[in-house]
What we know:
Blueprint: E1 3-6, H1 10-21, E2 26-29, H2 37-42, E3 45-46, H3 50-55, E4 59-62, H4 67-74, H5 78-81, E5 85-88, H6 94-106, E6 110-117, E7 129-134, H7 136-146, E8 151-154, H8 161-188, H9 194-210, H10 213-216, H11 224-244, H12 252-260
NADPH dihydro-nicotinamide-adenine-dinucleotide phosphate binds at residues 7-12, 30-32, 35, 63-65, 69, 72-73, 90-91, 116, 119-120.
Amino acid sequence: MTMTVLGLGAMGQALATAFVKAGLPTTVWNRSAHKAEALAGLGAVRAETVADAVREADLVVVCVLDYAAVREVLEPVAEQLSGRVLLNVTNGTAADARRLAEWASAHGVSYVDGGIMAIPQGIGRPESVILYSGSREAFDRWAVPLGAWGTGKFLGTDPGLAALHDLALLGAMYGMFAGAFHATAMAGTEGVPAERFTEDLLVPWLHSMVDVLPMLAGNTSVSEERRLVERVALTNIVSTSAAQGVPEHLIAPLRSLLDAHAEPAATA
Ligand code: NDP
């Protein structure tokens, strides 16, 4: 079993390094060739061209900036890819993944899409989750070597499922971070150091709120009583933010959403 990693940015380097450290024969390629030097030092084979890199591999992993780059890298080597497994872990939409799977199928390539729910420093740890979808047969064949990256979860044969779940989880992360940065800015207006506020109050608070999520799962309706209570809190956050000079644009839309979901007033 031989593998190639195309794209050695922060994430591609971490993925290739995990393969090499697991003793898996790994070939690497990157558009800017110097990024392959450290991996060559660890024992990876450095390919001069994408075609050379693909020729060496049973499994071809592509990890670049976006799907435009994926196409730019792969289209010239479509013939060489035939008969191999392509695992694309580049961030994209579910539609992007489905289109690439069709392209792969038309060239005799087995396609697996991946969503990496970890930062590069987390690659190789069991708590790092990698989402997969697409060819079940190809995933099963490579599941053990891919375990070098973290814990794999196969979501289904629709190639778009990994991207859909990846983007949903990233959306949750961005929302949480946006709220956290807003909170830090509010506390900062009274000179509270961001590090102290984050460690002492923010992180424990967010942990305790995460525990509530299973109770809220699937429940999108808000009772009128609850809505009024939440509205008071959101109004106070918005007005305090404005008074303290913190832009309110992250919080104000939540109050508007709550108003949009108000039950219509009963008519006499
Ligand atoms: P980097 O910016 O570190 O690396 C980008 C990579 O894409 C480089 O190898 C770059 O090559 C390559 N690239 C960009 N455009 C082209 C092109 N037109 N042709 C060929 N190669 C190209 O990004 P990351 O490694 O961090 O991210 C890569 C993917 O991994 C992204 O889709 C990202 O969403 C995903 N990911 C990243 C995470 C992270 O925390 N970093 C977490 C989870 C997923 P060059 O070196 O020549 O510029």
